[in-house]
Specification:
Elements lengths: L2 E6 L1 H13 L5 E7 L20 E10 L8 E9 L7 E2 L2 E6 L11 E9 L6 E2 L11 E9 L2 H4 L14 H11 L13
Antiparallel strand pairs: 1-7, 2-6, 3-4, 4-9, 5-8, 6-7
């Protein structure tokens, strides 16, 4: 599987600092893909090297709290499909935006995090679908960003309505919605 390294951009770090100071939140909500290779400090990037027109979505956002020697992480799951492609397309970079209203407000969007391919071009290549207009290949990539507890408090995490959620998150949401009954009625084990 293709492996990507991910880094919080300078713009993302600055936006988090301002959000923490003002008591606001940052919402990572939109991702674009590219086929380019950035040859400078990845934290300084503000636009993809070589954007590609590909069907890509942010599917899930999750915080993983620090555990012993493992640091806290923000995990962003993305899904890329080959629907609409007419040529073989390599995916070598991702740019995650925050506060873009799902891509509708790119003028105010923050280039929050950048991910780039680490290693060879292998299974990061998307071929056109066999039947045009129908996706037959999906790639899932997880962008993982180290965050501090202070930063976690300033990042909003929710799932996309057309996406998927982690089992743990679903259990937490449903547990908060369903009353606990006794006997033959519905129960929610924790």
């Amino acid at each position: 599987m293709a492996r990507f390294k991910t880094i919080l951009t300078n713009a993302g770090a600055a936006a988090l600092t301002v959000a923490m100071y003002k008591g606001e939140t940052i919402f990572p909500d939109y991702v674009l893909a590219g086929s380019g290779i950035f040859n400078d400090d990845p934290a300084t990037i503000t636009a993809l090297v070589s954007p590609v027109s590909v069907d890509i979505k942010v599917m899930d956002r999750e915080f993983v709290e620090a555990d012993g020697s493992n640091p806290s992480l923000l995990k962003i799951a993305t899904q890329t499909s080959n629907i609409g492609l007419t040529v073989v397309t390599p995916i070598r970079e991702f740019l995650l935006y925050a506060n873009s209203d799902s891509g509708a407000d790119m003028a105010n969007a923050i280039p929050f995090a950048y991910a780039w391919l680490e290693g060879d071009d292998t299974d990061n290549i998307l071929a056109p679908p066999l039947n045009p207009g129908q996706a037959d290949t999906m790639h899932f990539h997880e962008l993982a960003i180290f965050v501090t507890n202070q930063e976690m408090a300033s990042i909003e995490v929710s799932f996309a309505l057309d996406g998927f959620v982690s089992h743990r998150y679903l259990k937490e949401v449903v547990a908060g919605l369903l009353p606990k009954f006794v006997g033959d009625a519905l129960t929610w084990d924790e």
